[in-house]
Amino acid sequence: MTETAMKDSAEQAADALGWDASAQETIAWVAENFSTDQVAVACSMADAVLPALVADRMPGVDVLFLDTGYHFGETLGTRDLVQESLDVNVVDLTPELTVAEQDEQYGKDLFARDPAECCRMRKVVPLNKALEGYTVWFTGVRRDESPTRTETPLVTWDETHGLIKVNPLATWSFDDLVDYATDHRVPVNMLLTNGYPSIGCEPCTRPVAEGEDPRAGRWAGLAKTECGIHL
Ligand code: SF4
Q1: 204 C-alpha vs ligand 1 centroid, how far in Å?
Q2: What is the rounded CA–CA span in Å between residue 214 and residue 231?
Q3: CA–CA distance, 10 with 114 (Å, rounded to integer)
Q4: Ligand 1 near 203 CB (within 6 A)
Q5: Catalytic residues, which ones?
Q6: Could you tell me the sign of the dihedral formed by the alpha carbons of 100, 101, 105, 110, in that order?
């Protein structure tokens, strides 16, 4: 499929699905128009709702996990559980440098001095490389997560990565997510309902207080709010 055809396809889907189609309707559009090997699901392993929903229509789909070397043990445990319990293929995306190698070349705890560079090397570059092999990627971005995400579309052309980006959970609330996981026995990171509504690398994630923005615990105290993946 040419880039022009992919862009047209994304625009048609955005028109057809509108602003608030259900996650299942959005995923169905992808399943009807693309084969499973053209599709990837990005997953931070905060929960497995998105991989579970996509696997219902596209069993065996690739689930991309950014294995930064800085994750909570609970997150790695969720990754293992997702691979064991869902009909998906978890793909660990690792940075070029191990944490030890990065410490040696850039100094210890780069995340505290230059989180943008740390995220670039450990998240953005590995994801960009991995996405080159796909036509469509799913993300779990929701409009309720932060003021920067309120305009998240269901389907869009992702100029940065040159592929179609699909956000089936854009309309969901945090409670919708937890309720779905509970009702359908979908794996959830134990931290999610214990003060961490948004979970990233351990050194850059703190719990949030009641009423705080769900992503307030990410890079707390710094101007940074996104890792550079969802631009
Ligand atoms: Fe580094 Fe923090 Fe970004 Fe993880 S979230 S890659 S530790 S700066």
Answers
A1: 6
A2: 18
A3: 35
A4: yes
A5: 227
A6: negative
What domain range includes position 174?
A: 3-204
Instruction: Compute the half-sphere exposure of residue 65: CA atoms within 13 Å on the CB side of its CA.
Output: 29
Q: Ligand 1: does its nearest atom lie under 6 Å from the Cβ of 127?
A: no
What CATH number does residue 17 fall under?
Answer: 3.40.50.620
Q: What is the pTM of this model?
A: 0.93
Domain assignment present for residue 217? The answer is no
Q: What is the pLDDT of residues 11-29, one digit of tens each?
A: 999 999 999 999 999 999 9
Q: Is 70 in the pocket of ligand 1 (CB under 6 A)?
A: yes
What are the pLDDT digits (tens) for 46-75?
Answer: 999 999 999 999 999 999 999 999 999 999
At residue 141 the predicted structure's pLDDT band, cuts being 50, 70 and 90, is very high
Work out the mean pLDDT of the chain and round it to a whole number: 93
* Number of domains composing the chain: 1
Residue 134 lies in a domain: yes
Residue 120 neighbours by CB distance under 10 Å: 15
Q: Whose CA is nearest to atom 5 of ligand 1?
A: 201
Question: 140 is written with which tokens?
Answer: 């779990």
Q: Does residue 121 line the site of ligand 1, with CB under 6 A?
A: no
Which of 66, 108, 122 gets mutated to test ligand 1 (max ligand atoms within 8 A of its CB)? 122
